[in-house]
Every structure is written in C-alpha cells, then in structure tokens.
Amino acid sequence: MTLKASLFNGLKEKQVPCRTRGCTNTWIWDGADQLRWMRTGKTDPPLRMCPECYEKYNVLEDVLVPCANDTCQNTWTWTRAARVAALKRGRTEPPHDRLCTDCRDKAKGIEGMVVPCRVRRCEDTWFWSAEERIAADGGDGTAKPPARMCETCFKRFRDSKDKEMPCRVPGCDGTWTWSRGMQIESAARGFSDPPSRMCEACAAVLQTVTEQSLPCRVRGCDKTWVWTKFMQVEAARFSDGTPPQRMCETCFSQFHHLTDKEIKCRVPGCNERWRWTRIMQLESLVRGRTDPPRRLCATCSSDISKYEKKEVPCKHQGCDKTWSWSPEAQLAADRRGWSTPPKDRMCDSCKRFLETAETQVLKCAGCGTAVNWPKDHQLKVALGAWDKPTLCSDCRRDGKETSVESSIGAD
Ligand SMILES: [Zn+2]
Ligand SMILES: [Zn+2]
Ligand SMILES: [Zn+2]
Ligand SMILES: [Zn+2]
Ligand SMILES: [Zn+2]
Ligand SMILES: [Zn+2]
Ligand SMILES: [Zn+2]
Ligand SMILES: [Zn+2]
Fold first, then answer.
1. How confident is the model over 261-276, as pLDDT tens digits?
2. Are residues 110 and 140 in the same domain?
3. Which ligand is nearest to the CA of 150?
4. With the CA atoms of 302, 304, 308 and 312 taken in that order, what torsion angle do they form, in degrees rounded to the nearest 10?
C-alpha cells in the first residue's frame, strides 16, 4: 500500500462550521477533498458555506448601495455573501451606515472624536469614529456628534426595564414609573435606589398647592409652623384637606422637655388635684409664666354649680349693707367643714371706709391731752353705733364720761 492510499483511507469526513457569520450550520468535508487541500500546503480548513447558505447565495446578486455620506454620489457593493449573512440575522435591507471605498479612505485621514455620554451626570465617553464622522458631514467637521450613551450606560439601559414604584405619599397606593432612562441616570451618579416620588394623582395636587405658614396651636404663641406642600398633598388626598393643629418649632422642642403635672386645687381645704398638661404649660410659658395657674379640681368644678351667691349682713354693728358670699367661698367653707359665713365679712362701703380713713388726733375735753382716734372707732361712729369721744380714757375713768364706747382709744 502506498503512502497516498493509506492517507486517503485514513481521512474521515469532517463537519466544518459554515463561513457565514451568525450561521451555526456545518458542511461536510470529505476525505478526498481534505487530502487535496492538504497537498496545497494549507492547514486550516477552507471557508465554505453550509448547503442552506449556499443555496441562498446562488440565487442572490451583489447590490450597489449609496454611500452613507450624503454628499457623496458613490456606491459600495453589498455582496451576495454579506446578504446571506444579513438574511441569517433576518435582515433584508443593506446597512445604511456604510461608506464607499473613497470615503473610507478619506476617513483614514481624519480623527475620531471622544464624546461625553448623553446620560446626565455620567462622566464617561464614547468614541465617534472617523467613518461615522464622514457619514455625518462628509468630513468637513460641521456635524455635531449625536447623543449617545457610553458603553456602561448602554449596557445598563439594555439590561434594565421600566419599573412601577410606590407613591411616596403615605397611604397612597398609586405608583410612578421609574423609567430605564432615569434608572441609568441614577446609576451614573452611583445610586441604585429609586428616588422617592409621587404618583401622577398626588403630583397633580402638588401643582396646585403652595407652602403655608400657619399659627402655632399653642394659645398665645405668635409663632408659626410650615405646612409643606407635601403635607398638603397628604391632607388633600386622604383627609378633608384641612390643616392639622401643630406647634411651632420652639414650642415643639419645649414640649418634649415637659411632663404633665398634678396641681393642687385652688379651693382651700380641698385636697384634690388637677392635671396641668404639657400644652397648658406651654401656654403659660409663651406668656412668660412658669408657675401653674390657680384652678379648681374636677370635683370642685362640678360641685361649684350647686352654689349660689349669698348676701350676708356686714359684720359691723349698725351697718345695714351686705357682703357677697361667693359660691367658691361657700364651697371652701364646706370643704373645711364650716357651716357659717366667715366672721370677718365686711360690706364694700365699710371696707372702703377703713381703707381710706386715717387715724386722727383728738384733744381731750377734760385734760387737753392729744390722743389717737383709730379708724375702726371712726367707722363705729360713722355707722351710728358709737358717739364721737370727747375725753381721754383717764378722764373718762375719773367719771367725767360714762360711755365706754365713746372714750378715745389710747393707741
Ligand atoms: Zn450557513
Ligand atoms: Zn462615499
Ligand atoms: Zn454613561
Ligand atoms: Zn399618590
Ligand atoms: Zn408656638
Ligand atoms: Zn377641689
Ligand atoms: Zn358695713
Ligand atoms: Zn383727759
């Protein structure tokens, strides 16, 4: 057996991949052909089409396509082989970005351009090739680069989808669309979390509101708090739209340092307490007061309505006026277990008399000594209970006068 024969017999059929780009079929390379091929000194298998591609190839023709450079009249040849490959990818139209040979040569003479990524805040770039620039403006440098993404952004864009995100307004089950474009913008800034946004309905309300300064809920405080647009959206969407009662910032911070206090009832003899709430304390504070007001406890507040004002005769003998026994004073008397009005009650006119009168100095009709005539004695005389005195107590004791009441006080 010759060497040739043994080689011939030893070569088996081979499955060789189709030369068409994108085609995964094979063609069969028989032994005899392999031998012939090797004899020419080649080691790699030949570039051939699979039967399917070849069949198409045979019926297609080369096509002349206009140069992608609009200012150029030339064409380039879309070959049958290229058309087969295009068909394999489902394309029947020639690519529109291809240049003629002249223009491709021209492109070798100019530079490509580094262009910023179109995604806002992305600092990356993409490369605008010389050939693309020729296609855009024929090489005269007048065309602006198109808006394109850098490779990273483009991959993110390709791999992401629009997402429905929940509305940021608490209680709203609306959603907003986190678009792919927004997602890659966030990613370019290094954020992966979605921003917080409102749904369309909430956002529409937001357009109609303006920030408002509203009075602090603490009575007497003249400061304000800010009813933000966001809070107004919440109110408009999920309640009747009226603003809540809030404290200003100052009151709010003080509020947290306060605690409710139990304060003794103002009625003497009552041992119950009332609650001085934090809000009430704030109301005092804004008026500059730190002490609790004097109040009735709950029991006294309700009991006091059982009393009526009573007119009680003035304690001064000879006075026909009365003193008003207030419901609260009656209540206090009851709390202490007293049943009678106080002994020192005095009508207004007696009270005024004692407030305005002054101790007078009289001269004794007996001995001529100057003696003091006190205010309460003057009142008794004014009321007609006593006579105005004329003698000092010594002369009176000596029998010059008989009435005890009419002696001039020694004080
Ligand atoms: Zn093929
Ligand atoms: Zn051209
Ligand atoms: Zn980018
Ligand atoms: Zn919403
Ligand atoms: Zn306030
Ligand atoms: Zn009380
Ligand atoms: Zn009186
Ligand atoms: Zn005298």
1. 999 999 999 999 999 9
2. yes
3. 3
4. 170
